[in-house]
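Translate sequence into C-alpha cells.
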Amino acid sequence: MEWQRKKNRWDGCERADASNIADIAHIVLDAHELAQAIRATATVTGLSNDNVLLHQLFMRIVACLRSQSKLGEPADVQAVASITRSVYETTIDMGLMCLADDADAVDKLRGWETSALVKHAHCICRFFRVFTLPSHLEWIVAKAKHERDGVLAQRKRWWHDAHPPRWTGCGLDADARRLDALIGSSRFSTFYETSYRAVCWLVHGSSTLATSTLSEGEALFECGRALAWTAEFSLLAAKLLTVQIGIARSYEVGIANMVSRLTCARAGVDEPRAPNET
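Result follows.
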C-alpha cells in the first residue's frame, strides 16, 4: 500500500513512526477482506427482517473500509477522517440495535429514515414556494406527502413530536456512553470526548482549525490515528454482526488476531494531538 511505499519518506517523523502507519493501514485492508467474507456468508445464511437492516448497516462499513484502503498519503487526511466518522457512528447504531433492550429499535431506525425524508421535503417545498419545483425533486415531495401521517404518529410516539437528530432520540455522546455501558468499555466515549470534535473539524469545511498549521508529519500522524479507530470500530461491527446472525465461530479467531495486531501497531500513534499543536 501507499503507506508502506512512502515509509522511507516519513521515517524519523517527529510524531509518528511510518512503520506503525503502514501496519495499521494493512490491518484496515485485512479488515476489509474479512468484512467482505462476512458479507458474502451473511447473504446466504437467510436473514431475518431485523438482521437485514443490520446487514445493510454493515455494508456501509464494508464500503468505508474499501474506500479508506485506497487512500495513501498525508494529503488524504480529510477523506480518512470522514470515513472514520462514518464507521464510528454506524458501529454505534449496530451496537445499540444488537445489545440494547429495545424491541422497537429496527422500527425506530427505519422510521427515522422516513422522518428525515419528510423533513427534507418540507425544506425543499419551503425553498421553492415561489419557484417551480424541479422535476428531479418531485419524487421526494410525493413520497413525503404519502408518508407524512405515519411519520407524525411515529414522532409523537417516540420523539416528542419532533424529528430527532438520531433515531434513538438521544445525542451521539449519550449513545456512545450507552453502548460503552453495554459492552463494558469506554472506547466510544473516549473517541467522542477526545477525537470526535477534531474529526469533525477535518470533515466540515467551515474553518481551517484542523488544517491551518498541519504539517505533512502531523497529517500522517492524524491519518494513523484515524485508520486505527476505523479498524477498531469495524472489527467490533464485524463481531456484532457475526454473533447476531449465528456465524461467530467461523470468524472469532480472525477478528481476535486482528484486534491483537492493532493493539501492537497503534502504540506509536494513539495519543491525542492538541489543535494546531507545534
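Note: The radius of gyration is 21 Å.
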